[in-house]
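quick q for whoever's on today - can somebody do inverse folding on this one?? i tried earlier but teh output was garbage lol. tokens:
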């Protein structure tokens, strides 16, 4: 389903001559094709799932945020803006991101559900959060909140 949305978005962007969207969606599709090829190399007969695509998109957003920080430090504001535009395009394919408050509530709820008692349960907690909130949560923020709540 997500794969089809990406292809449809590429066609629509090409028709409207939106170069930024065309190039960004092509980057996404190229990364997706690389993942499909890697999965076939591991013996998977199916293309990557929507969950894996969402994880890939989330990592693409994270990479661009890191690039923005570097560009801003280097005084390359036009490149930072270009990365910001790409983030907006990529995020259009992701579910709505949880706010900081929603992340804190989700972490607290998951801690009680899995009976996490301390930092030693951090791995189990993060695995449960990734399973439930793939593509919806910034797991770096969730990790910080989890450490705070488990301490």
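ok took a stab at it. sequence:
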């Amino acid at each position: 389903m997500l794969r089809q949305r990406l292809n449809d978005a590429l066609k629509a962007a090409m028709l409207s001559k939106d170069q930024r969207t065309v190039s960004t969606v092509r980057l996404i599709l190229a990364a997706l094709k690389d993942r499909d090829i890697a999965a076939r190399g591991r013996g998977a007969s199916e293309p990557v799932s929507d969950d894996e695509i969402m994880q890939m998109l989330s990592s693409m957003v994270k990479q661009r945020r890191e690039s923005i920080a570097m560009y801003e430090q280097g005084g390359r504001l036009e490149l930072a803006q270009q990365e910001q535009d790409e983030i907006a395009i990529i995020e259009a394919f992701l579910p709505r991101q949880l706010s900081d408050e929603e992340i804190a509530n989700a972490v607290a709820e998951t801690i009680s559900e899995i009976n996490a008692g301390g930092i030693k349960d951090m791995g189990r907690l993060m695995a449960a959060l990734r399973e439930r909130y793939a593509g919806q949560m910034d797991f770096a923020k969730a990790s910080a909140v989890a450490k705070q709540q488990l301490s």
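fwiw The chain has a mean pLDDT of 90. also Residues 98 and 137 are 6 Å apart (CA to CA). so keep that in mind when u check it
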